[in-house]
TrEMBL record:
<dbReference type="GO" id="GO:0005886">
    <property type="term" value="C:plasma membrane"/>
</dbReference>
<feature type="transmembrane region" description="Helical">
    <location>
        <begin position="170"/>
        <end position="188"/>
    </location>
</feature>
<dbReference type="GO" id="GO:0015386">
    <property type="term" value="F:potassium:proton antiporter activity"/>
</dbReference>
<feature type="region of interest" description="Disordered">
    <location>
        <begin position="204"/>
        <end position="223"/>
    </location>
</feature>
<dbReference type="InterPro" id="IPR004837">
    <property type="entry name" value="NaCa_Exmemb"/>
</dbReference>
<keyword id="KW-1133">Transmembrane helix</keyword>
<feature type="transmembrane region" description="Helical">
    <location>
        <begin position="138"/>
        <end position="158"/>
    </location>
</feature>
<protein>
    <submittedName>
        <fullName>Ionic transporter y4hA</fullName>
    </submittedName>
</protein>
<feature type="transmembrane region" description="Helical">
    <location>
        <begin position="12"/>
        <end position="32"/>
    </location>
</feature>
<feature type="domain" description="Sodium/calcium exchanger membrane region">
    <location>
        <begin position="236"/>
        <end position="377"/>
    </location>
</feature>
<dbReference type="Pfam" id="PF01699">
    <property type="entry name" value="Na_Ca_ex"/>
</dbReference>
<keyword id="KW-0472">Membrane</keyword>
<dbReference type="GO" id="GO:0015385">
    <property type="term" value="F:sodium:proton antiporter activity"/>
</dbReference>
<feature type="transmembrane region" description="Helical">
    <location>
        <begin position="38"/>
        <end position="57"/>
    </location>
</feature>
<feature type="transmembrane region" description="Helical">
    <location>
        <begin position="69"/>
        <end position="93"/>
    </location>
</feature>
<feature type="transmembrane region" description="Helical">
    <location>
        <begin position="301"/>
        <end position="325"/>
    </location>
</feature>
<feature type="transmembrane region" description="Helical">
    <location>
        <begin position="232"/>
        <end position="251"/>
    </location>
</feature>
Length: 380
């Protein structure tokens, strides 16, 4: 590679560059075909590689544009492609997939608000005893998630205009408008009006202590790291999108194998939505855990609550529009068990967020709720 620009030489030899490209190639070769178990296993390997590459490129972009824009880029990119996957599976699944959007969105909320939050607090508390974050921004994000989840997933179980856990057309239109409006208002608050509420904060000591700031302002950039150039950031953005497309596409390829396992094990159909959400949210989970290990808990919480919010705020309006041509009812209302889990999650998350500090106990509570969700998903 003599005479080649050093930047492109490093780019060509980096696994984070080749993994998304190879994963997209595997996706293109396997898409729309009936593939043997061996190829399913190979696709799973490239799926894992694409997840790790997505995390790397998301961190490059986050470092270049700063917080909270960095976490917003990853959350929105993953959710947009997740919504496309939900629509695709709903259309191809017919009436049997009428509850797939509900199951996947609820799974995303529980994974982010309990799984990602719990793991992030655990990593931070293990290293510094106390995890600190901005209560103002995190509280606003949690309030938005709780409102969106209640309007979109709880109310349909109690409305009486139509039978079943579904909205009437006017009710669905309102839920769609409210979802996109609240999500847009939150993004405006997070990135422009009150951006300082969503920036990482420092502790006064290596092992914890009261929440503090540097120079009176929250820390917004990772220290001691090379600042990416515009070219590197643009390349990482392109590779991030390629990796996310590969992640979601390969997750769809893995879906038949997942459905086969679900049927063989006689598990509920909702377990398919849980498995798909777990696969799709892997990049955000790894990125959040890595940020928490660096004591940047606010970045982790931005990713967690931002992903939950984007999942509802973008999925419900899209599903509402798609329902104009989809056959069968659109089931959005949760059952009693899931409503209890959601309500308990909101209460616990509120008590976690209000102090702006968390310990291993709060991490354990969230992870216990996440484990309960997984258990009830396979054994309702």
């Amino acid at each position: 590679m003599k005479g080649v620009n050093p930047f492109f030489r490093r780019l060509a030899t980096s696994w984070t560059t080749t993994a998304p490209i190879l994963a997209v190639i595997v996706l293109a070769l396997a898409w729309g075909r009936t593939i043997p178990p061996l190829v399913v296993g190979i696709a799973a390997v490239f799926l894992a590689a694409a997840v790790l590459a997505a995390v790397h490129h998301a961190e490059v972009i986050a470092h270049r544009v700063g917080e909270p824009f960095g976490s917003l880029v990853l959350a929105v990119a993953v959710t947009v492609i997740e919504v496309a996957l939900i629509i695709s599976l709903t259309v191809s699944g017919g009436p049997a997939a009428s509850s797939l959007a509900r199951d996947t969105v609820f799974a995303a909320v529980m994974i982010t608000c309990n799984g990602i939050v719990g793991l992030s607090l655990l990593m931070a508390a293990l290293r510094r005893r106390v995890a600190v974050f901005n209560a103002e921004g995190t509280g606003a994000a949690l309030a938005t998630v709780a409102t969106l989840a209640t309007l979109s997933l709880v109310l349909p179980a109690f409305t009486t205009t139509v039978s079943g856990p579904a909205f009437a057309p006017a009710q669905l239109a309102f839920a769609a408008f409210a979802s996109i409006a609240l999500y847009g208002l939150f993004v405006l608050t997070q990135t422009i009006r009150h951006r300082e509420y969503f920036l990482p904060v420092e502790t006064t000591g290596e092992r914890g202590g009261r929440q503090g700031t540097k120079g009176g302002k929250p820390r917004s950039e990772a220290e001691h790291a090379a600042f990416p150039t515009n070219r590197a950031a643009m390349v990482s953005l392109a590779l991030l999108l390629a990796a996310l497309i590969a992640v979601v596409g390969l997750a769809k390829i893995e879906a038949p194998a997942i459905e086969t396992v679900v049927r063989t094990a006689r598990l509920p159909q909702a377990a398919v939505g849980v498995a798909i959400a777990l696969l799709v949210l892997l990049p955000e989970t790894l990125a959040a855990v890595r940020a928490a290990r660096r004591a940047r808990v606010q970045v982790s919480l931005n990713l967690a609550f931002g992903s939950a919010m984007a999942s509802i705020g973008l999925t419900i309006p899209t599903i509402a529009a798609a329902s104009l041509w989809l056959e069968g009812p659109l089931l959005l209302g949760l059952g009693p068990t899931h409503i209890v889990l959601l309500g308990l999650t909101v209460v616990v998350a509120t008590l976690t967020v209000v102090p702006g500090r968390a310990t291993l106990l709060q991490a354990g509570v969230h992870l216990t709720l996440f484990a309960a969700f997984l258990l009830l998903a396979v054994s309702p």
